[in-house]
Amino acid sequence: xxxxxxxxxxxxxxxxxxLNFQSRPDLGEPWDRPYREGLExxxxxxxxxxxxxxxxxxxxxxxxxxxxxxxxxxxxATAAPNCRVxxxxxxxxxxxxxxxxxxxxxxxxxxSGGRLDVGLGQGxxxxxxxxxxxPYAKRTRAFEEILDVLRxxxxxxxxxYHGAIYTVKNGLLRPxxxxxxxxxxxxxxxxxxxxxAVRYGAGLMIANLTELGHTAKQFDAFDAEASAQGVxxxxxxxxxxxxxxxxxxxxxxxxxxxxxxxxxxxxxxxRTGMTFKDPTTGERIPLTSDHxxxxxxxxxxxxxFVGTPDDVxxxxxxxxxxxxxxxxxxxxxxxxxxxxxxxxxxxxxxxxVMPRLRERLAAxxx
Length: 366
Description:
The protein is an alpha/beta fold.
């Protein structure tokens, strides 16, 4: 496996958007609309300087959450010719035989002209495995064997592989990918998962629900693991909400209906298993959607980048010293948001935040 190039802490991270293609079934929105509008948004992202577009994956969601990020990635690669395309994160054990996964990824890399980043995880929802008859308990072993097979396939030679789950005899990946070194990212939260990412030379991607302070500790542990394994520093990426407005309260108010539906209805903390540090006891306790802290301005600022363009730039500059990000992803279009507003939100970040961020991080005294 080959890692994407890693950045120093003072550099400007690449800017990416994450697409989920979710609809609002409660409003009667058809499943195809978020896909059509998502491609229009991808095209605009390509025009206004977005570097990366990744597609998430989940299965059986009533909102039509994208179950096929590789297929969707082919469409995005065509719509957004200036952007790298990736999965954030594909559930690798759900793809059948890993050589077939290698073929699909190679085709996407060829279609995109070598603009593919491969983002994989082992999965964490038992129902997604049960629905297609796969043993959830064996997902970790399956994931590691998949990574083994991908590594062998990407070497470009015929190979054999004999694992506990998968077997390959005279396997040969054709067409091979355009890129001689395929950038690999792994979604990992637990120490053992971070150690696995290091073993396979993968960058670490962290999702958008963890506090920024906790996220920094995860990256520190990841870097320490790389050092312990004798590996050069590997790349970092995060997904955050980036809400830009005349003030924090104005930005939050403009997004409120979409935030409430996404985080209170579709994916409330009771479903995602969120915890938070109780300020009175210092202990981590389960977070509930009716707790005053949940989706408060304090909650958001603990995790996301919210406020005026200068506020957002100041916070990113501060956290970039600790997170050492190579890519910062955000959601410009939440479920149900009109395309015009999503384009406006995209332009707020690309036009008002990123130029100031580049100027700040390029200055000798940041």
